[in-house]
Structures are given as structure tokens and as C-alpha cells.
Amino acid sequence: MLPMSEFAIRCRGLVKRYDALLAVDGLDLEVRVGECFGLLGPNGAGKTTTVEILEGLLPADGGEVEVLGRVPSIGNRALRQRLGVQLQESRLPEKLTALETLTLFRSFYDHGLDPREAIAMVGLEEKARVWVRKLSGGQQQRLSLACALVADPELLFLDEPTTGLDPQSRRQIWGVIEAFQKRGRTILLTTHYMEEAERLCGRVAIVDRGKIIASGPPADLVAALDAEHVVEFEVDRPPDLEALRRIEGVRELGQENSVLRMTVGEVHRAIPRLLEELRVQRLDLLRLTTHHATLEDVFVALTGRHLREN
Amino acid sequence: MFQSALFQLVLVKLRGFLREPEAVFWIFVFPLLLALALGVAFRAKAPDVLPIGVERGPGADWIVQAISATPGLEARPIDGDQAAADLRAGRIALVVVAGEPWVYWYDPSRPDARLAALAVDDALQRAAGRGDVHAISTREMTDKGSRYIDFLIPGLLGMNLMGTGMWGIGFYLVQARAGRLLRRFVATPMRRSDFLLAQILGRLLFLFIEVGVLVVFARVVFDVPLRGSIFAFVVASLLGAVTFAGLGLLVASRSRTIEGVAGLMNFVMMPMWIGSGTFFSVSRFPEAVQPVLQALPLTAVNDALRAVMLEGASLAQISGELGIAGVWAIVSFALALKLFRWT
Fold first, then answer.
1. pLDDT tens digit string along B20-30?
2. Complex ipTM value
3. A81 Cα to chain B: minimum distance (Å)
4. Between residues 171 and 210 of chain B, which touch chain A (CB distance below 8 Å)?
5. A100–B12: do the CB atoms touch at under 8 Å?
6. pTM for this structure?
7. Are B189 and A108 in contact (CB < 8 Å)?
8. Cα four-point dihedral sign B253, B254, B258, B262
9. I need a labelling partner for A201 at 20 to 30 A (CA). Which of A14, A192, B4, B133 fits?
């Protein structure tokens, strides 16, 4: 038997083009066995394309890909026996019951869980005999997750597993994913929810325009901002930005539309100094908020844009 | 023990169908209603008795008696104004105006009126003393198989095979593709050949029900015969079903939207609804287009079913039609597998 690789997924210089659009632009990725890894980024960043290449659903135009030590492709059934895949927005047959759906998916795999076991994992025991059409959005999403879990996979791909769900459904799905990871399995998930990545993922990679622009444990990425707090404020007239930047303790100052945001190490020292400076410049403060720095702030600091543009 | 993927995939198809009441109606009930309506509307029986009017006047009573004494004719006296109105409305076939000479007043474009004119004339001339020049006897033909309903039933069978085959497979596939279900299936170790085979098998299971129901119905209600062997009939039906399953697979091999595939389906099926001899004979079309019409798969299937049911044709006698259907089946499947879009 070959020695178990340390990595569940490795890819180097991954490239995918759609006509003129470069969807994935030389992406490198390493996911270790047993970790939950998050691909984070705005819509259209290339997350889904990357994941579908790793799943073998799309051919890459360039680069090397290795999943569980194999090269993924449409025809690689041996590899698929070991993967669980949940796709974004895939609709299960409406007039099958939850249990029938799981029995169908189970029949595709040589090994796996009993469909009833999978239904219990996602807490849908009471809905086993209910048609998919009559399940709520959150229940359908849990069933879809169960269809991936029923294979008892070594590696689970989840593409935006909680997009569009209410907070309660989201927490239920997080619980299922955490339980799966506790059994030593590997997960690659994509999301554009910061809380989701911070809660579930040991490491994340921030993807923008087909490239990874930062990666590491969420706490490290936030710490790399060298600032624990973010202060956002608005004033009545354009301020003297240079003077604001010179305030002691301010690491960075940026502007997005009328909102000024600065990252600071110690918020209780920075704010009195900010207020003093605004008084000197004779500016009226219209609004001021502060929060602990998050992955969202990392993304803004790196790209100057928000993850979810309204 | 877990069942095989193929079994599960066929089961999905059957469940999906049986849980769709509209689909059950269109496949099983609608053809019966259509056959019933057309069979009744075009039933070949002429009215048992031809109603004749005799305009009141001298000698009218004798004419009424002479006509009514003849089987198949019934006469009653009538006023002149009323006669014109009843003729126009078709309540009577012909009016005899008494006098010298007798006048037969009828619409020569109506077959029953022309028949009435011959029968009435014969009745009156005999009553007046004309004898037969030559002795005759008649022999009545009572065989079934030459009525419109007999022509229609095999055509409806063929059309139903086409409709259910193409819609049953095409619609399901495109729906699964549009909802990214096909993509999800492909992401599992499912064999793609299992999936496609399940479409065909699911289709063939219904075939026996849908064909059986219509054949039994036609036999019981209209006495439509099945003269050929059951075996030849089953072979022709099976081949027809497989051919249209292949065509459905081909039509649905690339579409990503229901609207797209619906348009394509109608484009493919429309010429065959009209030109393949379902409701009327293909021979009504001009000679120039005959080779095209004869090459259509539905024409071949209809002709084969009709020959087996009505003429008792053997497999050898319908080998030409089966050959045409077979070529369509093979070409459709080969192209569909080449073009099929899984994602």
C-alpha cells in the first residue's frame, strides 16, 4: 500500500478560460487530510470553477491537479467512490421522498452509509417519507448534504452550502459539517459568508479574480492586518486625509464612497485622537462605528472592495 | 442488500411518472378519449331508414304507401313550404312531388340523397308494375377492418408511441439538466450508461400498459381486430418505442431549457402528426413528397402496426417498415450519445 499523502488536494498553476474570460488564473492550492479548508471570495471570483475542476466535472486548461493522489476527470469512477459532492443550486427530483432520494444516491456507490443513517446525520428522520418538493429550503439543503454524506466520503466538496438560508438552518448545517470533520475527514467548502469560514475552517484562502491573494488560518489572516479593530466613520465635508493618517496608532486609512475606515491596534486610544483631529479640521462627525477586525476586513484591505457588493 | 443503480434509476422514472397525474392522463386516458370521439363521429353506419317526404296532392297517399312498404325507406306526407325547409336541414333525404310526371326533389351533392333517389325510384316503379329483367341475389359483407376506426386505431398507437417516447424521455432529461441534477449524478460514480439505459427501460415498461389498454379498448368498444400474431405486433410496438426513445434522447441531448426542448420537439413531431398517416392516409399527399413521408419513422411504425392488425401481416411482410424504424433508432442513439451534454 502506498503511504498516505499528507495532502487531500494539491493543485498548481490551475488555469481555466471561458472564451475571453480568465476564470481561474494560475491558482495554487494545498488542502491537508483532515482539515476543513475554505475558499473565500465574492461571486465570480472563480471559486465554483476551481471546485468543479477538482471534482473532475470540468477539464482544466492548464496546471496540475491531484485529488486523493489521483487526477480527477469525468471518467474517473474509482476516485468518485471516495468523494462526496454537493453542488450549488442543484435541484433533487421533486416527487421522490427524502429516503428514496438517499437510497438512489447510495446505489451509485460501492460502499457507504445506510440511507437511514445519513438521514439521521442531518436530522431529517421525521421527513424520511415526505416528498422533496414539500421540504423547506433549509431541509432540502440538508437532504442535499446527506446525499453527499451517504457515500461516507474521505473528501467532501461543499459549494456554498448555506447560501440563501435562514440563520437557524445555517447553524444546523454547520453542526453537520463539524461532526463530519471530527471523524477525521477532509472538507473543501466555498462561501462568501465570513462567519461561516471563521467558524468552520482551520485554514482559508481568499480568492479574487481567479487567484489566491491570501491564505492561512482565519485568525492569522486577521492578525496580519496588524490591527485588531476597524473604525468606520463619515464626516460632513472631505477631510484632510494626510493629517488623519498621521494620527498615532492608525495603521491604515481607506475610503469607500463617503465612508472612511481606519484600522487601529487600540481603539480606546485612537478614537479620542481622531475626535481631536476632526475638531481641528472643523469637521462634523455624522456617524462612527467600530468592530473587531474580521476576514471581511482582510478582503477589503487586500482589494479595496467588499465581498458582497450591494 | 442495496439494489443496483440501474434498478434505482428505473424506479425513479416510474415513480416520477406515476406521481404525475397529468402525465398519466395524457398517456393512458387521452388516447382512449380521442379514439372514442373519432370512432363515434366517423362510425361507418348509414342511418337505418332514409326519411322521405311526399308533397301533399293527388296520388300522394298511394306514393307514401308504396315507399313505406319498401325496407329501408320511410315516407310521410308533407306541405310544400315545410318540404323545402326539411330538405335544407337534412331532416329528409328527398321529396317526391306527386303529379305527372313524379318529381324527385333532392340535393345531388348528398350521398344519402342520391341513394334515396335510386331507392325511391325503384320502389315506385316496382309498385307501378315494373318487373326484374334479370334475377339477382345478394351476399352481405360483414367483416370488420375496413371502417375508419380500424384505420385510426393503429395510427393512434403509433402517434402515442411517438408522443410518450419523445416527451417522456426528452422532458425528463432537460428538466434534470436545467436543475443541475445531471451534473450532480455525474459527480457520483454512477455509470452514465446505467442512466441512459434506465430511460429506455422505464419507457418500455409503460409501453405494455399504454399499448395494451388502447388495443383492448378498441377491441371491446369498436370490435377492431388484431389479425396478425401477437408476437409480430409486440415486435413492431417495441421497435417503435425504442425508435422514438432514441429520437427523444437525440432531441434532448443538448437543450438546457424546457422551452428550448419543447420547441424542438414540436418541430420534429409536427410533420409526423400530419404526414405519417395517423388520421388519414399518406396517399392523399402529392407523389413528389411520398418518398420523404415514407421515410419518416412514424409512417413506418404506423404502416407496420396497421398491416399486422388489419391485414394479419407477418414479420417478414413488415420487414421494410421495421428496417426504416431500425435505421432511425440506430442513427438517433449513436448521434445522441455523441452529442449528449451531461453538465
1. 888 888 878 88
2. 0.85
3. 6
4. 176, 179-181, 183-191
5. yes
6. 0.79
7. yes
8. negative
9. A14
